[in-house]
Amino acid sequence: MEGLKLTNAELLVYIHPSKSGNKLKAICRELSSLLFQYDEIFDGVLLAFDVTVKSKGAKILAGLNPYFGVKVEASLLLFNPKPNSLVEGKIVKISPETIHVIVLGFSAAVVTDIDIREEFKYRMRNGEDCFVSSSHKRHVLKVGTMLRLQVESFDEEVMHIAGSLLPANTGCVKWLEKQSEEALHMDRLVLICTLFFT
Amino acid sequence: MGASEVLTDPSSLYDVGNGEYSDTYTMLTVRNALASVQNGESERYEELVQSMQIIKGADHAVWADLVTILNALSGSVACIDIIHHRKLLSSVFGMSLWDLKPHVMEALVGLLISLAATSGKYLDSCLNMLIGHFVPPRWVIDRLSQRRVIDQKTDVLSQVHGAILKISLLVPLAPSRLLPMLAQQMPKINKKDNVVVMYVENLFKLESSPIGQVGSSMLFMMVMERLRDLDLEIDWDDILQDDSSRGMFDMELEDTMNEGEEVGLFWNLMYQNTSGGNVVFESLDKLMVISFDHLESCNLDGRLDQVFEKLFGAFENFILNTYKSKVSQFLMFYACSLDPENCGVKFASKLMDIFLSSNKPRPTRQVSLSPLCSNVSYSLHNTLVLMTTWLMSAIAYLASYLARGKFLPITYVATMLKRLVDECADYCGACNDDIRPEAHQIFYSGCQAIMYVLCFRMRSILNVPLFRSQLIPLESILMHRLNPLMVCLPSVVAEFLKQAKAGGMFVVSDAFIFDDLLESELSRAFGGPERLDTFFPFDSCLLKSSNSYISPNFIYWSMVRPTYEEDDDDEEDAEIIVNGDEESDEEEEEGDLDYSMNKMSITPKHSFKNKMERDGLLKMPSMIRPSISPQSF
User: Fold this and answer.
1) Which domain of life is it from (chain A) (predicted)?
2) Which of A172, B231, B529, B622 is the most exposed place for a label (fewest CB within 10 A)?
3) Inter-chain contact B170–A92, Cβ cutoff 8 Å?
4) Neighbours of B201 (CB within 10 A)
């Protein structure tokens, strides 16, 4: 899945003196307050981090509350889906006009009917809403399906993705991977046959 | 009529009363109207906006049209633009579910869910609009006695909560945006009505829903803060001091329950003496009651243990250091009474942990005052003061809780007492030469806590040899040069010594002089400006309905059996020579309360305003003054 990146950063974390007994816990608490929020400096939504305290000393800030700054090295997992990148998520709701998806368990993504390619038709099967491909009957999108979609836009404030199923390489992840495996297998067979007959 | 002709004929756009047009067709029509604005043709759009206006007394066909349009808009959310369709959005967000019939309500809620889930731009507006329904409009509040209106309230709130939940399922981060909005929209204290109670009912409903799994802490914080605010709004000291029938207040609440007319008079006096009328009292009482009910439902659902952690966090934040609150803290008491083995034990343990925390300032610790770091020193000094009052408050809560919790087994109380005794004994071994009460506030708090609990539990503790033996170090603590018997609150010390003597607890060889005047000053000195020496937070709950929840699990002073009360025969075996003076022998002949000011009196020495009040205290002392030794619990 695109949109995820692992990056290293050198940070200076300021801690209240009352937390000096357990610096690591205080540092983790500070960084945890940034989780699942878009940060301009990191250029992405912080999903996870791992920290190492580098310095033994810390500079105390002058002022009424003498916070002290601890230098840390952190590995940061960031999420920033750019337009036209591909992301994957689980379908949670289908209606004739929309497909609602949850990406990585926290980001809401929506594909509206104008962004669903003509191939997919809305159907009600066994009381369940779904979109079925008219060209490939086994290509079905229903609640619980892992969906690959193309990012149209990403609202950083609410972490909302507007997605598209127009490109041919979007759809049910399982079906797409099976298709690509079969295609690869066919390619290999063709190659073998070509080599055999030449 | 062909489809294209219909699309261009404005008069037929929204006429679906006869069911001729399908939902799909209406949706196409609506989408065309929305798109037309961007093409510079706003006529259809204006018509669409116009059709959203609710006219009072409209007939069934109009409502049906509105439903169709709302459903069509739900399916066309992607076509709505936040700038071009500002009027339409304003119209949608300006609607109120309270004005709508049930089927229209459903359609509007469907649109809100669609708006919130399909585009992040509308999420906050949708959530705000839904939260705005937590407090009904005035015309609903005024008619809440009518069955029809009650049913409507149930329907509306059911739709609102259902919508919030559905939005949260589709937009996982919605709860994190919802919670700050809930805090912002929380009604302020209003002396005219109790809308706060209605709002909090909805908060508890959210807490019980899946949203509570992520938002429980914050929700309890909001409730606890509001409880505290209401509690502080009431001038309790004013009520308790100004009452002319002082004698009645001298008795704890339980004693008034069996006295017919006096019960009603008591509550009337309480409610009339408030500066803001009785609305604040009623609001606080109702808020406490719905909080108790919620805790009970959490217990029935088997999740009180998890909820308790969040509740304690809120208590620590808002109540622990609020010394003027008289009622709010009973939320913790009630939670503990519902689940004594888990929550009951946890509460005491957490308070004990605060008291024993490693950050506690020790008497040997010095704070250096470098002129270059004056700000640092000032800040550290303030931190030290705050920490001290924090610890003293925790120990006061622990003492009051161990004394009053009927549901606490005596084995547990004894264990806690042993820890307190051991801690105080350690302190005695390590303390410096400074004998000012202000320098040893935490120590005196600990000693007073031990004595206070023993005033209630003396008989039960002394009856078990193991528990009795665990209190052996107490003798040396009380006879230490820091002299806690002189410094701690006189009424507590007096009662404790009386019972200790009657129970044969220990023998003290040194003479003890009980000087009334010095006691008040010394206890005030250790209590500090907040008067933590007279802080007994779990004295009787003073609210009528709330007290009915608390009283079955509450040890009233009258329920306690003193060690000296019935066993006249045992007095001959008493080995206590606490005072070491001759007058104490005369006291042994009396089994009743002794109000001599120079003896170990059970009456409080402080807060005497005049002689009449002092005489009034000849009866059993009131809330903060234990006067009878404990029954076996």
Assistant:
1) Eukaryota
2) B529
3) yes
4) 16
Pairing of strands A140-142, A128-133: antiparallel
CA distances from A176 to A117, A169, B126, B321 (A): 15, 7, 36, 61
Q: Where are the alpha helices (DSSP H) in B39-84?
A: 43-51, 60-74
Say whether the ipTM exceeds 0.85: yes
pLDDT > 90 fraction of chain B, expressed in percent and rounded: 42
pLDDT above 50: residue A163: yes
What tens digit of pLDDT does each residue of B487-528 get?
888 888 888 888 888 888 865 554 455 554 434 677 777 878
Tokens standing for residue B72: 């069509």
Q: Are A65 and B123 an interchain contact pair (Cβ–Cβ within 8 Å)?
A: no
B382: its two tokens? 């303030």
Residues A67 and B532: their CA atoms lie apart, in Å, by 31
B78·A18 Cβ contact <8 A? no
Binary contact (A98, B120; C-beta < 8 A) = no
Burial B70-107 (b: 16+ CB within 10 A, else e): bbbbbbbbbbbbeeebebbbebbeebebbebeeebbbb
Phi and psi at residue A97, to the nearest 5°: -105, -15
The helix (run of H) or strand (run of E) holding residue B36 is helix B23-38
Maximum distance among all Cα pairs of chain B, rounded to whole angstroms: 116
Q: How far apart are the first and last CA of chain B?
A: 88
Q: What is the rounded distance in angstroms from the CA atom of residue B572 to the CA atom of residue B575?
A: 8
Cα–Cα–Cα angle for B11, B13, B14, rounded to 5 degrees: 105
Residue B450 main-chain phi, psi, to 5 deg: -60, -50
CA B430-B435-B436 angle, to 5 degrees, is 125
HEC assignment per residue over B391-453? HHHHHHHHHHHHHHECCCCHHHHHHHHHHHHHHHHHHHHHCCCCCCHHHHHHHHHHHHHHHHH
Which run of H or of E encompasses B503? helix B490-503
Partner residue opposite A98 with nearest CB, options B118, B171, B383: B118
Tokens (6 digits) for B101: 């019939």
Contact A108 B172 (CB under 8 A): yes
The alpha carbon dihedral of B453, B457, B459, B461 has a sign of negative
* CA-based nearest distance A128→chain B, Å: 17
> Could you report the per-residue pLDDT of B417-445, keeping only the tens digit for each?
999 999 999 998 887 777 777 778 889 99
For residue A10, the distance in angstroms to the closest alpha carbon of chain B comes to 28
